[in-house]
Design brief:
The chain is 30% helix and 36% strand. It has 174 residues and is an alpha+beta fold. Strands 1, 2, 3, 4, 5, 6, 7 and 8 form an eight-stranded antiparallel sheet that branches. The longest helix has 20 residues. The chain is globular.
Length: 174
């Protein structure tokens, strides 16, 4: 069995805990009609979201480095004209925080940065789920009349090598 398989099982075991919090932050009617999806880069495979993640538009995984992602969307029409990508990310972060089951949760502030020519807002979270240390990165981008939230996570010991894979997901959101 490849060395990464135990990591895959670990991350799948605690992924439902984190994913449920992200899923609860996006009511089901909010994602309907969102046109964009991630065209999966090499190394990523599409997964059917578990039944508890009925709000997710897309769910994917990779084994090298071990990582998972979820894609959510909300129409900008559901928010005031004053809510931009930074404000939306802060609102989303607050909603996820209320339902997170991670122990020892620590988060960065929301910041703006570019991935290629795309301007995103993002923040990171670390914590433990079932005794495993995990690291999350949530990236938000506005495309047309939609806010798209790409929530990615990996075991903490694979964080550095997963970053390029996470950036590739946003670059392939179309």
């Amino acid at each position: 069995m490849p060395r990464s398989c135990p990591s895959v099982f670990l991350i799948l075991a605690f992924s439902l805990i984190a994913a449920r919090a992200a899923d609860k932050a996006t009511p089901p009617e909010k994602s309907k009609g969102a046109p964009a999806r991630v065209q999966l880069p090499d190394g990523w495979t599409s997964k059917a979201p578990p039944p508890t993640l009925k709000h997710a538009l897309q769910y994917g995984a990779r084994t090298e480095p071990t990582a998972l992602f979820l894609l959510f969307a909300e129409s900008t029409s559901d928010f005031s004209d004053k809510v931009g990508v930074i404000e939306y990310t802060k609102l989303s972060k607050k909603a996820v925080d209320k339902t997170s089951k991670l122990s020892n949760l620590q988060e960065t502030e929301v910041k703006e940065r570019a991935i290629g020519d795309l301007l995103i807002a993002e923040y990171e979270s670390t914590g433990e789920a079932n005794g495993a240390k995990v690291h999350f990165r949530t990236m938000v981008i506005r495309i047309d009349a939609w806010f798209y939230r790409v929530s990615c996570w990996t075991p903490a010991n694979q964080w550095d090598v997963a970053q390029q894979s996470f950036d590739d997901l946003v670059r392939n959101l179309r």
